[in-house]
Design a protein that fits this description.
Oligomer: heterodimer
Order of helices and strands of chain B: HHHHHHH
Largest sheet of chain A: none
Largest interface: A-B, 53 and 49 residues
Mean pLDDT of chain B: 77
Low-confidence stretches of chain B: 201-206, 214-220
Helix content of chain B: over 70%
Mean pLDDT of chain A: 90
Strand content of chain B: under 5%
Order of helices and strands of chain A: HHHHHHHHHHHHHHHHHHH
Number of helices of chain A: 19
Structural class of chain A: mainly alpha
Shape of chain B: globular
Helix content of chain A: over 70%
Distance between the termini of chain A: 37 Å
Largest sheet of chain B: none
Shape of chain A: globular
Radius of gyration of chain B: 18 Å
Number of strands of chain A: 0
Number of domains of chain B: 1
Number of helices of chain B: 7
């Protein structure tokens, strides 16, 4: 049998999860975790070279190939970061070896679930995968077993399950809409079949289905007012999980939403999904931007920043059209890279300071220059200052909106500016001034953080034409 | 489809909505669990009937899961947890019985109006099943909102899932993948919740979710 990359991105994490659950020594398992993530990433890269045949269950096209490569890449660098992070947590006794074993196994299960959600061609299978990803992250958020961690996990679990339940109802409605046209059975849940024949579906049923899907998967994306689980889950779980949640899982949920948006776009009678997404996106952006001001916890601060950026991305995809879609895709990629880099920095900052309270950390650039300046670079990037990658994508979102809906663009720019000021206010007290708080020694690996940041800087300065062409092609697919 | 097939399916789905209402006003945990078991039993009957009417033998599996797992194992296990935690006292409610029932009626009316209008093209059994299913889902949500007790919320979530199974079986010919996965996910979800309940008990000596709310949003 020839080598199949699709099987690779699913089987490697699955086998690795079983192995990691069985092996006791954390030094071995942490490295094995990295090795498995690296292999998965290589498999994902090979999708660009040779693309396996799509079937009734799995599919690869340009859209999800982009997502898979991004997911496996951030998965790889996070596993490298997690190596030093988990070592420190074991040293100070916040985690015990059995929990670390559990953590590594769950990490690979999460990678498996996210990859499955991305390559699923069957809307039922996609739902199952997103549910699995939710459950694994719930377990990981609660892993410290402190009061706060348990509350965060419980909240995430309840809100996440309600969201997932609504999404399933939406999925059933899509099947109901497809059945009279496609016929009973498996075909009526296969996305490629659905999108080809969507023109003949009952538009009213599709509308209703999309509302449920938007509320359901929108909860997972973290759109306001469905975001309540997100800051807690980010703040109380282990930092590598915050990085994966922000950088990847939110994207996966958004990807599911995009697939259904394409389905609705193929039906002339159905409602335009754009305005709904634009509204939710703008609400999330403005709301989260204001929420940045009162944050006292550093991870919570960046969790709200994630809500803000998911708002921008949802807004861009809601606007639609080649340029806005292009900007949305670029922004999503840049946000994933930058936000996970920030969480890598924040994880080490919280470890050297022994706290996540912003009031107890200060003068980071003096005490830990590399870490401090890395964090500053990350925040400058995420705030959207030129010449970094996020500036470019935000500029594209804003300019394409100005051309089509100037009023919306004003709200958008307002939200962006409020968010930028909020972030810098906080950054100032963390990075500069008199050193405050504990001065622990950093045993950090800076490689993942600077790898991400240099990619973001490079993308801001020079985008290779091949990459631009690729994104344009995917943006065209999104319609 | 003959008249009697339709009527029985209709009756069972309607019964499910009725039992959802009964769950709303139970103020003791034991009684709540018993009503939930009845809910699951009715679901099993409804799914089995659909299996017969649609001539879809795989649906019997779903019915069996509903019967064995949801109507027997889960209520018994939750009974034990309640005894072990010593919380077989009254359930506190956020809103009163009267307003909860009124809200429930409003939700049922809403789902009827929405579903019946949207699905007029579909066959009558499917559309009415779907309307009932949406009612059960919304009532489950309402129950989760009105209960402060963690066990009560879990029961609310499970009755919500029952509504989803009803919808999935009502959609004729829906592939088995989904039904099994729904049942399976309930299993996983239940294990997760079980772990959580124990941990919460272990840590805070209460299963009242209000005790978790001390920490809302900000760390001081």
């Amino acid at each position: 049998m020839t080598f199949d990359a699709l099987a690779g991105v699913l089987l490697i994490p699955a086998v690795a999860a079983a192995l990691l659950a069985a092996l006791p020594d954390y030094r071995v398992t942490a490295r094995l975790n990295v090795a498995a993530a690296a292999l998965t990433f290589l498999c994902a890269l090979s999708l660009f070279v040779r693309r396996p045949q799509s079937g009734a269950y799995l599919i690869v096209d340009d859209l999800n190939a982009t997502f898979i490569v991004l997911t496996t890449f951030v998965g790889l660098s996070t596993s490298v970061f997690s190596l030093s992070y988990i070592g420190h947590e074991l040293q100070i006794g916040r985690l015990t070896p059995p929990f670390v074993r559990f953590y590594h196994a769950m990490y690979q299960v999460l990678m498996f679930a996210m990859n499955l959600a991305l390559i699923a061609n069957n809307i039922g299978l996609m739902w199952v995968a997103i549910e699995l990803a939710t459950l694994t992250t719930v377990l990981m958020v609660g892993i410290y077993r402190t009061h706060e961690a348990l509350e965060a996990a419980w909240k995430y679990f309840i809100l996440g399950s309600v969201g997932i339940a609504l999404a399933l109802f939406g999925t059933i409605l899509v099947y109901m809409a497809a059945r009279p046209v496609v016929g009973e059975g498996l075909d009526a849940m296969v996305w490629t079949v659905l999108v080809r024949r969507a023109g003949a579906f009952d538009p009213a049923l599709l509308d209703l289905a999309f509302v449920f899907l938007l509320l359901g998967y929108g909860t997972k994306v973290g759109l306001a007012p469905l975001h309540a689980w997100l800051p807690d889950a980010h703040a109380e779980g282990p930092t590598p999980i915050s990085a994966v949640l922000s950088g990847l899982l939110l994207n996966v949920a958004l990807y599911a939403l995009l697939r259904f948006k394409m389905l609705l776009a193929a039906n002339a009678g159905a409602l335009a999904p754009g305005p709904l997404m634009v509204t939710l996106g703008l609400i999330s952006l403005v709301f989260a931007a204001f929420m940045l001001y009162r944050r006292r916890d550093i991870k919570r601060l960046f969790a709200y920043s994630s809500i803000e950026h998911m708002g921008i991305i949802t807004f861009a995809f809601g606007m639609g059209g080649p340029l806005a879609n292009f900007a949305g895709l670029l922004h999503m990629t840049m946000h994933s890279l930058t936000k996970s880099a920030i969480f890598f920095a924040v994880g080490h900052v919280a470890q050297v300071k022994g706290t996540q309270r912003i009031a107890d950390m200060g003068g980071l650039t003096e005490t830990h220059p590399v870490l401090g300046w890395g964090l500053i670079l990350g925040v400058v990037a995420i705030a959207g200052l030129p010449p970094l990658g996020i500036f470019m994508s935000e500029f594209l979102v804003v300019s394409s909106t100005f051309a089509r809906a100037p009023l919306l663009a004003i709200v958008l720019v307002f939200g962006l500016l409020v968010g930028l000021a909020g972030l810098f206010l906080r950054l100032n007290s963390i990075a500069f001034g008199e050193p405050r708080g504990a001065v622990g020694k950093a045993q950090a690996s800076y490689v993942p953080m600077f790898a991400h940041l240099s990619l973001v800087v490079a993308a801001g300065v020079y985008m290779p034409p091949a990459l631009v062409a690729w994104f344009q092609n995917v943006a065209g697919l999104l319609g | 489809m003959s008249r009697i097939d339709f009527d029985v399916a209709h009756m069972l789905a309607g019964l499910l909505v009725l039992i959802s209402f009964m769950q709303l006003y139970q103020d003791r945990l034991y009684a709540l669990l018993n009503v939930y078991a009845l809910h699951a039993l009715t679901l099993a009957a409804s799914v089995a009937w659909q299996a017969m009417v649609q001539d879809a033998p795989h649906l019997y599996v779903t019915a069996a899961i509903a019967l064995v797992f949801k109507a027997i194992i889960i209520p018994v296990a939750l009974h034990r947890i309640i005894v072990r935690l010593g919380i077989h006292r009254e359930i506190e409610k956020v809103v009163g019985v009267g307003s909860a029932m009124l809200a429930g009626m409003g939700l049922v009316a809403l789902s009827m109006v929405v579903m019946l209008r949207v699905t007029y093209a579909a066959d009558p059994l499917a559309r009415e099943d779907l309307a009932f299913a949406l009612s059960v889902v919304l009532l489950g949500l309402l129950m989760m909102v009105t209960r402060r007790n963690a066990v009560g919320q879990v029961v609310g979530f499970m009755s919500l899932e029952n509504g989803l199974v009803l919808a999935a079986t009502g959609a004729r010919g829906m592939p088995l993948v989904v039904e099994i996965s729904v049942a399976f996910s309930i299993l996983i979800a239940f294990i997760v919740i079980g772990i959580f309940l124990f941990r919460i008990r272990e840590r805070f000596d209460t299963v009242d979710v209000a005790a978790l709310d001390q920490f809302r949003g900000e760390r001081q």
